[in-house]
């Protein structure tokens, strides 16, 4: 049985070659759109974003990108820079309602203090705190110490010290010494 070709509906050429729909253009950093600001309680979501959110948020995001570049976040996978912390601090300090108030550090912001009481942060890993130079010094000093401890004369000295500690009960002698010192 021969197959019949499928009949497809015609393609409207107007849709294929029509100009693209106008795109939404973000406002210039820090500027509100021209005109009277709408009432925030009854305006549309788009108007609310354009008049009340973007004029504050977009400069904050620009500052965040500049700070991330300064902290060299784009050069490696891991960094100690926490973008949410920076943006929180920036938005709090650049809030139009806080114009005349002084700069407040992130951990001094009241709602951040309250949040961290209930949700303490884990410590930052030492690999993110140290610079490359400090980390290389630590690794090199550890390696030199390891190599020295592998030396046969040092091994002999360590064995002698261990034996002396066990025979003379050095730990007990030290404890007695400190209890006498604390009693004075």
From TrEMBL:
Domain of life: Eukaryota
Pfam families reported for this sequence: IQ (PF00612)
InterPro entries: IQ_motif_EF-hand-BS, IQCK
Name of the featured protein: IQCK protein
Organism for this UniProt entry: Pycnonotus jocosus
Gene: Iqck
């Amino acid at each position: 049985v021969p197959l019949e070709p499928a009949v497809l509906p015609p393609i409207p050429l107007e849709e294929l070659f029509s100009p693209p729909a106008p795109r939404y253009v973000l406002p210039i950093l820090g500027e509100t759109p021209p005109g009277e600001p709408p009432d925030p309680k009854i305006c549309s979501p788009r108007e609310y974003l354009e008049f009340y959110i973007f004029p504050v948020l977009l400069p904050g995001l620009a500052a965040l990108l500049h700070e991330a570049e300064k902290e060299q976040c784009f050069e490696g996978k891991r960094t100690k820079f926490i973008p949410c912390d920076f943006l929180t601090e920036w938005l709090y300090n650049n809030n139009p309602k806080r114009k005349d108030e002084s700069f407040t550090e992130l951990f001094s912001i009241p709602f951040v203090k309250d949040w961290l009481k209930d949700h303490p942060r884990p410590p930052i890993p030492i690999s993110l705190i140290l610079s490359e130079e400090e980390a290389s010094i630590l690794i090199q000093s550890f390696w030199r110490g390891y190599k020295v401890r592998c030396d046969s004369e040092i091994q002999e000295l360590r064995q002698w010290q261990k034996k002396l500690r066990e025979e003379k009960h050095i730990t007990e002698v030290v404890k007695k010494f400190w209890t006498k010192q604390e009693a004075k």
